[in-house]
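Tokens as discussed.
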């Protein structure tokens, strides 16, 4: 009897064991997420591994719960996970965006799954590390020596570059582009920071291939710190002057700075103006995250105004009679003089009969000149005409130049005014004729 009971128990166990083995036994694990850590506002790839220790589950389901700060993006595996087959091992990939205002730290991401559509859900919770990358390189100071570079003159740009972060930075690549043709994408092989990004990406691809994942997703995007998109600009004013325009620094400690000196020369034909030269800075943080910044560096080219003022003509003959003085203003500089006006300043040497005392000449291009005429009455034979020229330069700065024109009235002693002298001769001749006529009349 005991033997028969034992055989019955064995038979029952053998009958039950296949049924138990046939039931699917699912579990979900976090394989990886990339990039890791992830920044607020950034999208990352989530890789989940679904394992089944039982028979194949032909009707399994899985759902990533999109709760703040996460947002599930629509990808192929989102639809696939609603009903899929799991036999042994199955990997799924999702794209998730982190809210821009997410706090730094570990945020739980919930995943629910079931072995069949009718089976109750199970749940797993995975911690996602959210971290704001504060790695930031900026310009602490920009100086130009001399402060205003003249056309054809050599000078120096002094850049004080600072690490504003609380972690060290690596592979700082500084490039001042005088041709405005530098392209980060086209010059990737020349950038230490971007090369590090490539190496990190290759490591990621190798890891995915080794684990059976697709290597075509999950690229770490280049993060931009300040700056703008590249804008093509015609740049024909400044050139390098026998020195390096590119500097590479292996590392930069937190809150430390480096000084970069770049020799420059203003081209001889450069017109006075403020020119913007793009500065490119590529670097990596401790986690090998690449950063790129484009900063506009101002270079000021200027020159002293070269204004020629002269007395063009005058008809002053005496201190007893008024006359006109024509004054010419010429621009002998390389830049335009705008809104030019000339003023005859009051003086004890003369009285100004013209109203007003100012004449507007307009704008004078390089090499051009304009004239102004004033009517005056001289008080002295030797007089000085104080002239004031006012205009705006290339930087909209008002420039005031005072000149003095020395004028000597020499007509009294050296010049004969023919019409005036001939009038006196006719008067004298008339008097003589009158006297002779009276004389002959009395004689008769």
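Sequence:
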């Amino acid at each position: 009897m005991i033997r028969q009971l034992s055989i019955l128990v064995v038979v029952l166990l053998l009958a039950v064991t296949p049924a138990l083995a046939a039931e699917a036994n699912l579990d979900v694990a976090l394989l990886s997420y990339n990039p890791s850590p992830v920044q607020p506002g950034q999208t990352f790839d989530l890789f989940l591994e679904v394992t089944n220790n039982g028979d194949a589950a032909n009707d399994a389901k899985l759902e990533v719960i999109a709760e703040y700060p996460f947002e599930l993006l629509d990808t192929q595996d989102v639809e696939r996970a609603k009903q899929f087959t799991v036999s042994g091992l199955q990997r799924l990939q999702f794209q998730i965006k982190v809210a821009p205002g997410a706090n730094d730290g570990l945020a739980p991401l919930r995943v629910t799954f079931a072995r069949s559509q009718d089976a109750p859900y199970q749940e797993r919770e995975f911690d996602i590390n959210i971290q704001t990358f504060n790695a930031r390189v900026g310009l602490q100071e920009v100086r130009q020596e001399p402060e205003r570079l003249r056309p054809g003159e050599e000078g120096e740009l002094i850049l004080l570059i600072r690490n504003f972060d609380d972690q060290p930075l690596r592979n700082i690549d500084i490039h001042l582009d005088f041709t405005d043709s530098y392209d980060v994408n086209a010059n990737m092989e020349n950038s230490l920071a971007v090369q590090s990004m490539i190496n990190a990406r290759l490591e990621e691809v190798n890891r995915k291939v080794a684990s059976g994942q697709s290597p075509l997703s999950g690229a770490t995007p280049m993060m931009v710190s300040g700056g703008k998109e590249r804008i093509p600009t015609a740049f024909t004013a400044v050139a390098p002057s026998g020195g390096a325009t590119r500097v590479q620094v292996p590392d930069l400690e937190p809150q430390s700075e480096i000084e970069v000196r770049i020799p420059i020369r203003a081209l001889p034909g450069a017109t006075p103006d403020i020119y913007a030269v793009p500065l490119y800075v590529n670097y990596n943080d401790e986690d090998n995250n690449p950063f790129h910044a484009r900063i506009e560096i101002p270079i000021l080219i200027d020159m002293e105004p070269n204004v020629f003022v002269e007395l063009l003509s005058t008809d002053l003959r005496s201190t007893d009679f008024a006359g006109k003085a024509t004054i010419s203003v010429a621009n002998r500089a390389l830049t335009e003089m705008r809104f030019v006006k000339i003023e005859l300043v009051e003086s004890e040497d003369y009285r100004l009969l013209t109203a007003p005392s100012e004449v507007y000449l307009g704008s004078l291009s390089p090499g051009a000149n304009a004239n102004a005429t004033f009517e005056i009455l001289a008080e002295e034979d030797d007089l000085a005409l104080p002239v004031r020229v006012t205009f705006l330069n290339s930087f909209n700065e008002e420039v005031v130049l005072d000149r003095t024109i020395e004028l000597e009235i020499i007509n009294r002693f050296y010049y004969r005014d023919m019409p005036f002298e001939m009038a006196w001769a006719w008067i004298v001749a008339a008097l003589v004729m009158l006297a002779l006529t009276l004389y002959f009349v009395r004689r008769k």
